[in-house]
Amino acid sequence: VAGTAVAAASAALAIKLLRRRAADARGDAAVGLVGLGVMGAQLLLNLGEKLDAQVSGLDISAENVRAAAALAAAAGLTNVRTHNDYASFVRSLRAPRVVLMLVPAGAAVDAVCEEVAPHLSAGDVIVDLGNSRFDHTELRQRGLAGRGVHFIGCGTSGGKSGARLGPCLMA
User: What whole-number distance in Å separates Cα of residue 20 and Cα of residue 68?
Assistant: First the structure.
């Protein structure tokens, strides 16, 4: 009996992992978030709880990716995926893709735009949740318009707890 229970649990886990891989290949995530630092990881958990859909997170830091995945697992969130490369991250998103970005204003925003834009298509949207200057936002909008990618500036306030429980978004 114990062996049967273990086999059933193993089969269930294998099916869950196969479904997860299939979902990632299909691009089932409703939204993606780049930047899994203190606020980003908490916002990813918030989205995972509030949305009745898959969500994906990306960070260039392997440590931040592992930490966000561990937080999601500890919260029992099976709909949260984490990535450390842009190609798999964008493939995980359903079209039209919505990419939220929570990185420091300035060079980091430009770097994310440069890395993610080649993987996006016309009609996709990037939302900068940092506190970038409006004129920098306008430059990025013009720069991405040629690709048909929309860029929106939307400052975020509330810190770690706000990101987890409900951030103040200033659109």
Answer: 17
The CA distances from residue 72 to 38, 68, 109, in Å, are 14, 6, 25
* Token pair recorded at residue 53: 């859909």
Burial (CB < 10 A; 0-12, 13-18, 19+), residue 52, is exposed
Q: Residue 73: how many CA atoms within 13 Å on its side-chain side? A: 7
Cα 171 to Cα 32: distance, rounded to the nearest angstrom: 18
Residue listed under structure tokens 């630092």: 37
Tell me the pLDDT tens digit for each residue of 25-82. Answer: 558 999 999 999 999 999 999 999 999 899 999 999 999 999 999 999 999 999 999 9
Biggest alpha carbon–alpha carbon distance for the chain:
67
